[in-house]
Amino acid sequence: MIDRARIDLGNNIIGRIEKSGRTFEMLLDPEKAWNAKKIIREEINQRLKDGKKKSRLSPEEIIEDPRINLELIFESFIVFEDLRRGKKATDGDMEAVFQTTEGKEIGAEMLLDGDIQWTRTQREEEREKKLKKIINIISKNAINPQNKKPHPPERIEKAIEEANVKIDLIKNAEEQVGDVVKQIRAIIPIKMEQMEMAVKIPTSFTAKGYNIVAQYAQIKKEEWQSDGSWVSVISMPAGLQMELIDKLNKLTHGRVQTKLLKS
To answer: Is the distance from CB of 159 to CB of 188 less than 8 angstroms?
Structure first.
């Protein structure tokens, strides 16, 4: 039995994953774990951009990735039920939830899906990064409906502060823009410049094309044609239109069809 008084986190942080009503905890190095999470997020985002059917990474891929050294990230591969109390997880619980008792495999799952208690510096760094991207997207795609002019980034940032908007550290900046705009409408008159476009993607590229479109736009209508092609009507920020069309052209080798419906 580990002496409870000796459980000292030192400069480490606790990673936690809850599954099937059970809790599992491990001890991690904050900087190395932070860098690993960045690699994982970047890989997932790249897979989404590439239109791959499988964007999620597996624990095996994490273990085999040469950029991620689990031995340096985890203080040890001991899995706890309650780390601060020194209470280890039982083999039976680990086997029932993860189908393994190997700490390395469970650690990989923790990096993928776990709740990691990041340091304040890390949280602030990630929030600032997301905030800047959100402000940039809004400033390029939103106007003051009273004078039809864009709001300067400084004004948008001030409105976000005044509205006490909470920036989600997990969600992509693009996913949060709509909610942020709704919240700051109470502070400044603002309207996102939206446009509607019809898109037709040939049969060979529908799976990847759908994923690309879903990243940029709201799919308002969609229909599968008899030849297997995918037709949709989408709504999106006007400033992202050309970027989306460019990605679809590259994917389909210029065979995508688009038509502006409303802007």
So the answer is: yes
pLDDT in tens, 116-137: 878 888 888 889 999 999 999 8
Contact 138, 34 (CB under 8 A): no
Strands 230-237 and 194-201 come out as: antiparallel
The Cα–Cα gap between 83 and 91 comes to 16
Mean pLDDT, residues 133-152? 88
Identity of the residue numbered 143: I
What band does 174 get if pLDDT is binned at 50, 70 and 90? confident
CA-based nearest residue to 157, from 193, 121, 132: 132
How many whole angstroms separate alpha carbon 145 and alpha carbon 193?
10
What's the token pair of residue 72?
Answer: 């340096």
Task: Tell me how far apart the alpha carbons of residues 191 and 148 are, in angstroms, rounded to a whole number.
Answer: 9
Structural domains for the chain = 4-116 (3.30.1250.10), 120-192 (1.10.10.900), 194-262 (3.30.70.240)
Strands (E) in the chain, as ranges, are 13-19, 22-28, 80-82, 87-88, 115-116, 142-143, 191-192, 194-201, 218-224, 230-237, 257-262
How far from 223 is each of 41, 58, 138, 206, CA to CA, in Å? Answer: 31, 32, 30, 12
Per-residue pLDDT tens over the stretch 39-62: 888 888 777 767 666 778 899 999
Model pTM score:
0.55
Q: Which of 181, 187, 179 is nearest to 140 (CA)?
A: 181
